DNA sequence: ACTTGTGTTGAC
DNA sequence: TCAACACAAGTG
């Protein structure tokens, strides 16, 4: 029935071009794209890419050619500023707020958003919560300066990952009690997946995104999308402990995260349990695993998204 | 099995 | 800098 609920969500018409490129639907032939930074994929979809310093930065694949073009535009704005040529100039004319939003984000995160098709969501959230002048400082969420000024945090809860948590199921089961107590409430009726963005403090500000949802079938709260990737890259193994903590009251910004739905800064700490067999993926270049001692991975959570607007539903 | 994303090359 | 082509890596 909902074969492509997610597909529909991902297509979330960035802006639909309006009158620029009305005809989108990928043609079976697709010789090349009319849009800059857009390349056809073997399967008929469209990929977006931008180049920087002789290196290609992949921006993800999209069903709609225009969506891919828009993704390129976003990247171009962040990478090259307004000077860069874009596919939909008009779309950015009155997007001053968007520019501010982009400026406050690391390139890597922008790219990550584009790849995961969450940019639109993140942007809307940021704009919505930035009604005040605290746009960049608090509303926008991941402001570099602000993030760096959050040294303290209070523990929330911990969980030792089970084999299934790090297995093929690609999910982390969050203890119900803790989930309901510390995580945003999930309305089963709305079935709106919540997006949690975490900045990997130990990974040079890398951002991770997890989908937080409730599985009625097993009646459990889980972190799904993005979790498997995290497990792999960090070499998380069964027995390791994942500790969630929350940033100390954001006194600096004056924003109180007392209510659900408001930005809530969280950290997650992974303590590697000692094991004889070093079943470690061995991610090159990461160097997160000293190889023996307890490895600590710290994440910085920026916000919680209520992606209801998009209408995406992953829980049934 | 299918899709994504990278290697790689050559044109602009 | 950019995209076409090939194909390996990733995902379900």
Automatic annotation (TrEMBL):
GO CC terms: nucleus
TF-B3 domain span: 157-266
InterPro entries documented for this protein: AP2/ERF_dom, AP2/ERF_dom_sf, B3_DNA-bd, DNA-bd_dom_sf, DNA-bd_pseudobarrel_sf, LEC2-like
Signal sequence range: none
Official protein name in the record: AP2/ERF and B3 domain-containing protein
GO molecular function: DNA binding
Species: Urochloa decumbens
Short name of one Pfam family: B3
Record's keyword terms, sorted: DNA-binding, Nucleus, Transcription, Transcription regulation
Biased segments, Low complexity type: 22-34
Keyword Transmembrane listed: no
Compartments (UniProt record): Nucleus
Residue ranges, annotated region (Disordered): 1-38
Domain AP2/ERF residue range list: 34-89
PANTHER family, per database record: B3 DOMAIN-CONTAINING TRANSCRIPTION FACTOR ABI3, TF-B3 DOMAIN-CONTAINING PROTEIN
């Amino acid at each position: 029935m909902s074969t492509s609920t997610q597909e529909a969500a991902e297509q979330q018409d960035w802006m639909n071009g309006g009158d620029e490129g009305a005809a989108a639907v990928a043609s079976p032939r697709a010789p090349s794209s009319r849009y800059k930074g857009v390349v056809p994929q073997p399967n008929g979809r469209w990929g977006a890419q931008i180049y920087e310093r002789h290196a290609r930065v992949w921006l993800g694949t999209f069903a709609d050619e225009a969506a891919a073009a828009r993704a390129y535009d976003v990247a171009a704005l962040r990478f090259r500023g307004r000077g860069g040529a874009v596919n939909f100039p008009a779309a950015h004319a009155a997007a001053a707020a968007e520019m501010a939003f982009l400026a406050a984000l690391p390139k890597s995160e922008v790219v990550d958003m584009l790849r995961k098709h969450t940019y639109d969501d993140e942007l809307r959230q940021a704009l919505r919560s930035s009604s005040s002048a605290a746009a960049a400082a608090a509303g926008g969420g991941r402001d570099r300066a602000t993030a760096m000024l959050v040294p303290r945090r209070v523990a929330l809860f911990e969980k030792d990952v089970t084999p299934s948590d790090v297995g093929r199921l690609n999910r982390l089961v969050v203890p119900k009690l803790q989930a309901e107590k510390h995580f945003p409430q999930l309305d089963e009726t709305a079935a709106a997946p919540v997006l949690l963005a975490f900045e990997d403090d130990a990974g040079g500000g890398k951002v991770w995104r997890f989908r937080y949802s409730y599985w009625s079938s097993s009646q459990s709260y889980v972190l799904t999308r993005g979790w498997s990737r995290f497990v792999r890259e960090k070499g998380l193994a069964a027995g390791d402990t994942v500790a969630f903590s929350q940033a100390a009251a954001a006194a600096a910004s004056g924003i109180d995260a007392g209510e659900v739905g408001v930005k809530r800064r969280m950290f997650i700490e992974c303590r590697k349990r000692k094991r004889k067999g070093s079943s470690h993926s061995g991610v090159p270049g990461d160097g997160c695993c000293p190889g023996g001692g307890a490895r600590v991975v710290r994440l910085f959570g920026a916000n919680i998204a209520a992606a209801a607007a998009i209408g995406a539903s992953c829980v049934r």
